[in-house]
Amino acid sequence: MYKKYIKKSILIFSILIFSIMLINFTVDPGEIYLKKIIADKKAAEFSDELFNSQYGIIQSGWNERLIKTTLARRSGEFDCIIVGSSHIMQISSIRNTGKIKTQCSKLLNLGVSGGSIEDIAIFSYLILNNPTLPKRVFIDIDPWSLKFNMDSRHGAYQELYNSMNILLQDKSSVSTSYYLKGLKNLINGEYLYYSLESLFGKNKKQSSLKSIFNKKITSPTTSFSYKEGYKESLTLPDGSHLYSSSYIKKQKTNNPNITLGGGDYKITGKIYEQTAVDYLQKLLYLYELNHVNVSFILTPYHPNVFKKGDTKAVQFIRIIEEKTIQLAKINNIKIYGSFFPEKIGCNSNEYFDFMHATNECLNRINFSE
Amino acid sequence: MLFNYIIGNSLNTESGTDHNKFSKKSLLTLGIISNLALLGYFKYTDFTIDNLNYWIFTDDIPNLNLALPLAISFFTFQQISYLVDSYRQETKEYDFLNYALFVTFFPQLIAGPIVHHKEMMPQFAKTRNKVKNYKNIAMGLFIFSIGLFKKVVIADAFAIWATAGFDVATTLNFLEAWATSLSYTFQLYFDFSGYTDMAIGLALLFNIRLPINFNSPYKATSIQDFWRRWHITLSRFLKDYIYIPLGGNRKGEFRTYINLMATFILGGIWHGAGWTFVFWGFLHGLALVIHRAWSTLGFKLWTWFAWLITFNFINIAWIFFRAKDWDSAIKVLSSMFDVNNIIIQEKFATKLSFLSEYGIHFGDVMNITDIDKDFINWFIITFIIILIIKNSNNAIKSFKPNTIHMLIMLSLFIYSLLQFGGNSEFLYFNF
Q1: Angle subtended by helix axes B326-336 and B174-205, to nearest 10
Q2: Do B430 and A16 touch (CB under 8 A)?
Q3: Nearest residue in B to A192, CA atom
Q4: Which of B 43-82 lie inside 8 A of A, CB atoms?
Q5: By C-alpha distance, which of B20, B379, B365, B361 is closest to B184?
Q6: Which DSSP letter does residue A303 get?
Q7: Which residue blocks in B40-112 are alpha helix, DSSP H?
Q8: Which member of B117, B271, B284, B291 is catalytic?
Q9: B138: which chain A residues are within 8 Å (Cβ-Cβ)?
């Protein structure tokens, strides 16, 4: 009687666990299992189309980090690469931002929203693992760049990050394998909850397997100017970003309302972590060993950010810029730009918001020097 | 282990001369002191250094920051009881392998129950226990699932509030303070009894029966009743190896009180190296003394009132057990009695507006954590579980291999597994 009961229990348990895993794997609200397999293929198609396109690809609906990591796998085809956050996403050789073409005839922009030190490491790993290496890599430094765990989105590329940490012999930063985490996640309750929500159509934000599979790679159909933008946001053929015309227009209207003394995006906790500075130092050394020239880029914050004295945000900005200058001196690295608008000469109306400069402002960073 | 085994065997050998008796006493003293010295070195060195620095040397002696060997408090007690019983000729000549298994038996090693050689060694030696027993496996899985659910689902949920109130918040209002202390009271019970259930369940898979350690302790209607229901195997150890050897209740009423106080202060320090633990032990000792004195007067309280007093005393005493220092303990305790700082949820503001005349405010009640605003529902459900629902000892007694028990077991087990990973970080990678 008990033997039968145990057998039955194990059977039902196995069926239930298998069903949970199957639901999580196929519905996949985080797009890390079945959806990722399809999305990876689509991203590869996207990169082929992008490099062959004349005016870029409509960006809407594509996972930015997935696209940029796919592009990074082909970074050997370029002589310059930019890595960092959305602050540098518009820097483009096509638009010749700040005369960058004088240094880079073929530039690849790998900037991603909220790009943090882990993203820099992930892209660097992909860049350095190409059979051909670029001549130069521009690393964007932001007020949150010298700290770990400032953005969770790099987690989808944990394996690449772990590989870079092994390369840098930084075992303290090697976390649990992404695959092991993924396996455990198949029986995660919260993941199951979102899977069931999607399954029963209660989560409209989730893209379905079908929609990922049928996702179209679309190029702009009408002519547009870089200054005013296309009706939808675009990824230009060098990976740089062009905001949509409606966004550009809207932000210009909002521009005068930027809060005085604001600017506290990712301004929390310690200003920097020495372990992160050491980590970046190791990364710079790795580039040097591979004969890749590294430069830093700092992009200016809106003048209003500085109009309320030495706020927390201003302290972060000031100290991180000082720390970047120190690092650059030690490593004999050139710095382009500054967080301080007056050093670049940017005006209040040359911003989308408190930390995103427009192309007009970015043009004032002189890359030809 | 080998040291204790050899000493235990030497103590156990039959001999009658006075000279040998004296030697045995010395041997026992050596054994006990060695065990306590090891425990003292690993667990209490830094505590002693801190006190020496505070009272005498003003920070001259650096802490050793020793890593505490896993389960040292538990196996030290088990081995001491073995030595004492060997001295009393109450042990048999056990096999060393079985002795080692008794000390290191993994299901109960970390969080108890504290087992006695008399109840374990015969089970290890029994040939019949080496044969697969499906009834025990079925019961083991059932009780293990209950334990896992208690720990992962209930205790870990309350842990978030307890941590927020004790360790994060700098100030607490009246309700937050009560929520904090009750959260810890519930967390501790479900955590500890959950581990015990898992240990009992795991042991049953190997045909080993561990003693029960909890018997609905929060149903207790007196402090004496509480200690008959809470960490039963510890109470047994304290009674047999400290309270009774000190004289128990055989040396008059006053000496009994002293013995009770001494036993519980030692019990307090066994739980952790800190004055707050000593104070917690002192409070319990004092409560037992008062209870004993009260009982001799022959007065009886209404059961519900006795329960209320007992439960609140236990709840308040746990504050000193949990707080990392005196200041945190005082922060929680003083806020629990700060009737000028009562804040009721905003949604009741219209219906209960008259209360504002009595200094009661309306606003965000649980500012210390935004995990769950339905904390009152959680507390009500938990009170129902601890006061009304059958405890796991009774549940296992009525266990039958039927569909209902199977569904209960599978639901508890699978739900616990789903909660294991906490929040899924993968959901946020793409946003």
Answers
A1: 120
A2: no
A3: B418
A4: none
A5: B379
A6: G
A7: 45-52, 72-87, 96-104, 106-109
A8: B271
A9: 2, 5-6, 9
Map tokens 């302790």 to a residue: B217
Q: Which residue of B has its CA nearest to A62?
A: B430
Closest to A80 (Cα-Cα) out of A135, A120, A125, A121: A135
Q: What spatial distance separates the first Cα and last Cα of chain B, rounded to whole Å?
A: 55
Nearest-CB residue to B429 (from A12, A13, A152): A152
Any idea what DSSP says for residue B68? P
- The total number of residues written for chain A in this structure: 369
Q: Is the CB of residue A339 less than 8 Å from the CB of residue A300? A: yes
Task: Give this complex's ipTM.
Answer: 0.82
| Cβ neighbours, 10 Å, residue A204 | 7
**Interface test mutation site (partner B, options A188, A193, A194, A206, max chain B beta carbons within 10 A):** A188
Contact call for residues B367 and B177 (beta carbons, < 8 A): no
Mind telling me how many Å the CA of B223 is from chain A's nearest CA?
A: 40
Contacts of A17 in chain B (CB under 8 A): 414, 417
Number of other residues whose CB lies within 10 A of the CB of residue A315? 13
Phi then psi dihedrals of residue A334, to 5 deg: -90, 145
- Angstroms from B238 CA to nearest CA on chain A: 39
Q: How far is CA A193 from CA A25, B41, B149, B355, in A?
A: 13, 49, 19, 41
Buried b / exposed e over A227-263, threshold 16 CB at 10 Å, is: eebbebbbbbbbbbbbbbbeebeebeeebeebeebbb
Contact A13 B427 (CB under 8 A): no
Give me the tens of pLDDT residue by residue for chain A, a chain 369 residues long: 899 999 999 999 999 999 999 999 999 888 888 888 888 899 999 999 999 998 999 988 788 999 999 999 999 889 999 999 999 999 999 999 999 999 898 999 999 999 999 999 999 999 999 999 999 999 999 999 999 989 888 888 888 998 999 888 766 666 667 788 889 999 999 999 999 988 887 766 667 777 777 888 888 988 898 888 999 999 999 999 999 999 998 887 777 677 777 778 888 888 999 999 999 999 999 999 999 999 999 999 999 999 888 888 999 999 999 999 999 999 999 999 999 999 999 988 899 988 999 999 999 999 887
pTM passes above 0.90: no
> Using CA atoms, how far apart are residues B395 and B416, in angstroms rounded to an integer?
18
Interfacial A residues in 168-197 facing B (CB < 8 Å): 181-182, 184-185, 187-192, 194
Cβ contacts from A onto B, under 8 A: 91
Q: How far is B209 from chain A (nearest CA, A)?
A: 18
The amino acid at B293: A
Give the best residue of B402, B409, B420, B427 to mutate against chain A (max A CB count within 10 A).
B427
Is B271 tagged catalytic?
yes
* CB within 8 Å: B414 and A29: no
Instruction: For residue A130, give every residue at least 6 positions away whose Cβ sits within 8 Å of its Cβ, in sequence order, or none.
Output: A73, A74, A75, A76
